[in-house]
Each structure stands twice: as structure tokens, then as C-alpha cells.
Task: structure prediction
Amino acid sequence: MFSAVTTPLAPVPPSWLATGEIAYRRMLALIEGARVSIRCETYIWSDDEVGDRFRGALTRAAARGVHVRILVDGVGSAELPAGYWGGLEQAGGCARIFNPLSTRYFALRNHRKLLVVDDATAIIGGFNLAHAYDGDGVTRGWRDFGVELSAPAALRPLAESFDSLFRDHRLRHGLLRHVGRALLRWPRRYPPEGPVLFSGPRLVRNQFRHQLLRTLHAAKHVSIVSAYFLPGFRLQRALCRVARRGGVVDLLLAGKTDVPLAQRAARTYYGTLLRAGVRIWEYQPQILHAKLAIIDDAVFAGTANLDARSLGINYEFMVHFDDAALTDAARAAFVGDLHQAREITLKDWREQQTWPLRLRGAWARFLLTQVDPWLARQQVKSTL
Result:
């Protein structure tokens, strides 16, 4: 249960963690300094040197009396060996698997990444706990970043949502009924201090997509980073409208990817967006994995991509910040990443779109925007 006792009376402003490497270093420092509680949640936890560092730090925290809870996804972390958490559990910690791998509910995943320490500080970002993210995103490691925050308005819903998912981590124990009701009790609109916006298969209205569309309605300058980009009709239309009325819309998408099917599908959207005046870049040095939207003076950061899975299937969250320093840091990082990217012009896109590529892209888009959501809806119905 979230406790305000350890929360600072005057929380510090959110701070930008520019790379996965920097975020890991800060996370480990917070874990080593924890006194009361640690909540750690990730989609992928790998059995490698990064996973071992975090497991060791969390085990030491549990041994000194800190209440340590870990939640990993049953698909993303399926390769962890049996007994991996034995030492941590002997020290007093507890690790659970969200929706263990099965054929019945395989489509419903927890894609969130979160660390909450002593109910006072949280770190969010797109990175999992694996060697692939441990770098600067240019010379080594996938391109990602994090944000450290301490505002109670964000900490409380993050901690409470973790507790709900941790408690009801097995779908056959009624997770969708319990978590869905808990999420729907929270307000659908939030004050501008840094609200948490949730995504999930049982939400009546996707909070992140709703707030994003509201913010785009009067936007003048939009900068978006998305590792996997399948925005859907309403979001695509909103981006085109900003560009057509004279606004600036810049999209930084993946040049290198770990999911070629998603990239093929994403490129089918380029023509419509480019014709409307949207500018598109593809990041070149490493695999792009970041999730970020800067809309005028507001920043959205967290775990959700702009694709059908993040916006309608997975459990996700994004935090909406209105902080000038964080906006400046995020915008500087975005501009820096553009120097590492290749701009895709309408002429480039037309020349690349051979008929075989068009057909493969259309098939990929159908699978990811129609078939995958349909399967998820069927599995949600079977849990009711």
C-alpha cells in the first residue's frame, strides 16, 4: 500500500535520464539507498550481467529488511531459468510473473517498466532490464531514456497500479475484473502537475490516447519518438491536421528494429503523413526503443508506443509532464537524435515502395492492427 510517510513534502522537479546506461546507474543507486520499500516492474528481465546486477542489488536490499517486490511479464521474461529468484526470496523479497505463458491468454501482456523506491522516488522509461539497453544509444546499446520523478500526484497512482497488478498477476484469478475496476475508479482527466495515463485491455477509454488527441487539437509544435508506429486513423488524422494548419510535426522512428514486421507496417503510413507536411526521420546508429511525445510545452514519457498493441492491448502507462526544464531537456535530446537520423522525403518513400514491399507492408499492417487486436479481444472475453 502506498504510504505518504516517506514522500518528500517538497518533491524535486522531474529529471531527464538521457540514456539507458545513465538510468541504470541511477536506479541501482536508489536501490542501494532504499530503507522501506522497492517496487520493480519490467517486461523483459534478462539472465545476463544487467539482470544479475539488479537481482544482486535487490537481494541485498531485501536482506537488510527492505520490502522488495518484483513483477516481470510471462512472455517478455520467459527465458529466466527455474530458481532464478531463489536467493532474493530467501532474503525476504518476492518476485511474481504476470500472466505466466499459456496459449489461453498469451496476447494480454504487461509492457510496463517502473521502479518505485520508498514511495518517494520513481524512475520510468522504455528500457527493460537487459544488456541490450546498457549503453549510450549511439556507439552501443539501444536508444532509450528515463525520467526520475517524485511528485505525489504521479507516485501514488503508479504505486497503486503496481500493487493491483502484483496482487492479481494471474489472469485465472480474475485480474481483468479487479484491475479494470481499480483503474476505472481513477479520474479520467487529471490536473497538469504530471498525471499518469493508463492503457489496458479493460479500460473503457484509453487514457493516454485520449489525452494525446486532446493535446494535439491546438498544438503548434509536435515532436514524437516511437519505436513501433501504427497510430490508427484518429491519431494519424490529428497529426496531419497539425501539419496542414501550419504546425510543425516531426516523427523520429526506427531505422534499425528488432521487429521487422512492425517496421514494414509503420512505413505504410508514411505516404499520407508526408503528403500532409509531417516530417519523418529514421534513427540510424542503433535500434530505437524510446517512447516520447513533446507537444508544445508538454511532455509525455513512459512505456507506450504509438501502435495498436500499446494503445489497446498491453498494460502500459505514460506520464504527462508540464515542466519547463524537463521539456527543454527532452527537446534537446530529440534534436540531438535527429542528427543521428536520416530524413525520409516523399520522393524517397515513393521510390522505395515497390509492389512486393507494398504487399508485405499491407499484410503486416493487417496482422498488427486487425488480427492481433481481435485475438486480444477474444481472450479478454474469455476472462470475464
Summary: The CA atoms of residues 38 and 117 lie 5 Å apart. Residues 355-383 form the longest helix (29 residues). The chain has 13 helices and 15 strands.
